[in-house]
Each structure stands twice: as C-alpha cells, then as structure tokens.
Give the backbone structure.
Amino acid sequence: MKQSNDNIDNSSGKSNDAGYDGEDHHSLQQRRLKTQVDIILSELEGAVVYPPEESAEMEYVYRDGRILVRDVDLPRVQEVVGGRVVEPLINGVSALAPGDDFNTQTALQAIDAALGINIGHPDHAVWIVPASACPATEPNPVPHPNPDPAVRRDRCCDGTGAFVSVVDTGYIAALADPQHGWLAGVTGDPEAYDPNDIGPYVGHGTFVAGVLRCMAPGADVRVEGFLTHGGAIYESEIVQQLNDSLDDMPDIISMSAGCTTRNNLPLLGFQVLWEQRLQYLKGTAVVVAAGNDRSRKPFWPAAFPWAVSVGALERDGSRARFSNFGSWVDVYALGGNVVNAYPNGTYRYREPPESDNGKVAQFVNAMSEWSGTSFSTPLVAGIIAARMSHTGESGRQAADAVLRIARSHAEPGIGAIAEPGMACDPDPGCGCRD
C-alpha cells in the first residue's frame, strides 16, 4: 500500500501529520503493515502478497491459485488460461483455478491482454481494515468503566425496531453483564480467546457492537463471525456468507473491513452481490470503514457508490492522521481514542512501536481505548439506526437523511461530519437534546 507524500492532503491544516515518538510516520506505518500482513499470512491458508519483493510496498493480498470471473465471461476466459471452476460463488460469479501453464499473476496478465483489465480478478483477502490497520492502534487499558462516546438516552430515537448485522470477528457474550448494560440483547457468533494471551483483533466485533449500541441502545444487533483468520477472509468466502446473511433482511450492515485491490478496481464479488441481491433489498443500508492508509486511493467495498463510507476524526475534530480521505469518503465521525467493552486478560503488543520493547498490558475492568475507522463506522451505523426509530424511514432512507444532515455540519478541508445526537436533527419537536 503506497503511502507517498503525494497521497497526503495537508491543505486543511487539520490533519495531524506527526509521526509516533519521533519516528517518520511512513516508516512506522510500513513496519506495522508488515507485522499485520505476517499475521494474515500465518492465519489465512494460501494467502500471498503482491508485489512479492521484500523491498516493495504491498498493494494487496490474494489467494494463490484462484481468480474470480463473472459467469458470463467464463467461456472466453477459459479459452485464454484454461483451468476449471473450483466453485460457483453467488449467482453470477465463480472462482476459477487457471490451467497448469499459469499461476495467478500470469493468468491475470494473459486475461488483461486478451480480454481487458476488468475481466479477471484476484480472490482478494479482505480483513479488519489493513495498513495502519483497523484498528489504527492496538487496544489500550483505560482506568474507568465508562464508554466514550457515552450511551445515548434519547427518548424518541434509540434504534428500537432497527436490525443491524455487524460483519466482524464474532461476539463475546460474557461481556454483556451489568457493567456493560448497553450490550444487553446483542447476539452473535461466539468468539473464543485465551485470557492469558489475548490475540490480535480479539474482541473487535464486541467493541464495534458496543459503539453501535451506545448510539442506538434499542437496536437489534447481531455480530457475524466472518473475520476469524487473523481478522481476515477471502472475498470469495465473505460474499457467500453475506449473501446468506441477507436472508435475515437486515436494515443496516456495518462492516469494518476491506482492502485495496489490483489496479484499484472494485471487488468483483461485492459488485456482483450488489447487482444480484443487495440492490433489490431497497431498505438495506451498507456502512463500511474507509480504511486507515491516510490515502486517497480507493478502499473497497467502502468506495462503492452504494456504500456509506466512513472516515475517522480525532477528538479535537480534525481528520485522524490514519484515516483515508477523498471524494469517495461520504462522512467522518469520531474514530480516535474510542472507549468500549473489551475482555479482561493479558495483551501482548505485536506492532511497533509498542512491540519494540515487548510491551504487555493487563486489562482488568473489561474496557479498552481503541482507534480506527473500524470504530467511526459503527458510530455512523448507530446514528442511522437511531434515526429509523424516530422517523420510520428504512435503513437506506435513514442513511441518506443522516448524510444530508452531516453535510450541513461539514468542515472545510474534511467533509461531512456525523455526531452523536444527530439522528433527529433538525426536528425541533424531538427533545433529544433537552
């Protein structure tokens, strides 16, 4: 993932561009990225980095020996690279293993040359938003048990009646105790962990659900445990799982994951999922993290025009230095130093600079402070859910309304700003802010 100075916009004067502890930010980001990618490669079978050279900056991660192709293009693709269909995915797209004379990259190059650059695609790895990662920091203990942003107590817009599907690592149900009352009633795929060595990204899904529930305490929230291999999954797998989850007809999908892609092209599996299924669920809003590469480069699936893409702000209102930005980012919300539920136990830091001196943290009050567009995303999804209960709008209608309100709060050089309590703006009769 290229992080050249050309990708960094300092025109607003609002983005903090300083490095950590005096280290050049770009250098540190690349060291952290290598650590995160190593986790993915160790956990996700068949994962390969492109480009492969040690000195090169990563562009994407993909599944070796697979390419994704629209079903309508299969005959002419097989004329070029041979191979066989490994499995049909959702209606309209299949995974193809190219013939013996090709590896993934040479097959893609041959397809590009013969048929055009938007025909064959890697099976990209999608994970809890990479490069400076999402989270953009590792979790840190906090001395108090209070979530921040706090639980909303709005009388008329608490999310009641809205159903939100959170695409993440799973759910730690034990945290839904009296201390974490805002998690009561949240359901999801169980996430296991070792309290003696809390792994990377453990608790991420529960933390995300907690942020969402603080904005919409009455919403029905389910955490899907899709991102279980070092926080990653292949595109071919997640689109099938998302397709299945749509049978439950969620009003809102909140997804804090994504990737950069070959030639910056859209993720084919997600594009076909939209064409074949999502666009016909006219009430469903898809809210996706914009990523933490602090780049204009499109980050998928957030960059799709049908997604609500969410960047991150610091607590002083500036754009977070880790957040992606550009015209494809729809809205920004707090993503710096967010506090919510986290499991107790021992956490060993794996990413620089903390890992450089073997830093270890003890979590004792089941709370954590974390930063990233991972956490600005459920904040916006929660505001949308809260608005649904106030207005009776569908998820997509409520999302459009929240974006209109956010644009009225836009900051020059940043963009549209979403804030807690915005769900019923500008209704003077609501009384939520009384």
